[in-house]
Amino acid sequence: xxxxxxxxxxxxxxxxxxxxxxxxxxxxxxxxxxxxxxxxxxxxxxxxxxxxxxxxxxxxxxxxxxxxxxxxxxxxxxxxxxxxxxxxxxxxxxxxxxxxxxxxxxxxxxxxxxxxxxxxxxxxxxxxxxxxxxxxxxxxxxxxxxxxxxxxxxxxxxxxxxxxxxxxxxxxxxxxxxxxxxxxxxxxxxxxxxxxxxxxxxxxxxxxxxxxxxxxxxxxxxxxxxxxxxxxxxxxxxxxxxxxxxxxxxxxxxxxxxxxxxxxxxxxxxxxxxxxxxxxxxxxxxxxxxxxxxxxxxxxxxxxxxxxxxxxxxxxxxxxxxxxxxxxxxxxxxxxxxxxxxxxxxxxxxxxxxxxxxxxxxxxxxxxxxxxxxxxxxxxxxxxxxxxxxxxxxxxxxxxxxxxxxxxxxxxxxxxx
Length: 417
Fold this sequence. Notes:
By secondary structure, the protein is of the alpha/beta class. It contains 15 helices and seven strands. The strands form two sheets. It has a five-stranded parallel β-sheet, with helices on both faces. Strands 1-2 form a two-stranded antiparallel sheet. Helix 11 (about 315-325) runs parallel beside helix 15.
């Protein structure tokens, strides 16, 4: 009887140990990519690490930098690696740069005649984000200018469709009708100042595509981003970015998403607060042990929290864009300013795009069109104060960094508190 009892205990012990071993193996496999990338970054055989930039530091260091500000110095890399932070073997199946053709000198938009003798074009400007920051309305009003052809909004080729087999030929075919108009303009006048635009809000803070880009293999954070691929295709591209108070933007996105999908059923301020609490906990835990940049670009973390609060960590992504494009090629507008003075902000954007000056009456006509994509959310009331304070606290160091980056305290959004 004693022997049977001992054998039973032994079997139970073996089963428990085996289960724990399997569980440990599963945890190890799940965390392996992150562990591997970190190991590669710390391996002495890897490329020599650059001086640690702010993105590798903690949120507390960001706060210290704001209290005792030092000059923000960004190394301009254009299409080079943003950081030498990993040394995995390149994957030949990863997406490489699209080699640009020889663009015409007599077209403002980057265009060329293809092998069939037909004119093809890629965008002259890009509205790259951010979702629920008035980008659809802004894009539509930009295309009201007589020198701007009606471009494409929300193609997401650089971040999504390219992964699913949509070729570069497919991408440029989206602009074929506009290229025909430019071709006719060239044949009529000898040159064309008509421009083409594209708007995709996923471009600014992409967490999905970058692991598939050549040079990012085994990286915990990207060395190349979508910005570099746009720059390689059109080094003179004009980039337009619309931002708003990140706390208010998040609630607006939550209500919009609940209206248009099944992701959030029965939306309410309380449900939103529960998701906010979960999201802040997840990201705070990540930021306790990893760099700001690693957490910001982590797609698994973004999807797990559902709210995608990383999209409001504007300063992290903007610094990467500023390291690829010169500042004079990036225009950042606050949605709050655009809403208060649409004529003034549109005029600044038209000037940025080097478009012809319009009379005040025409500018007012453009501004007086109905607001696009507004009021399509659930009306469940304002967010809870506790959600507001929790999100404001989370975004505060990122807003402070943005204010320093833009050299203007309006990016702290104190006027909307």
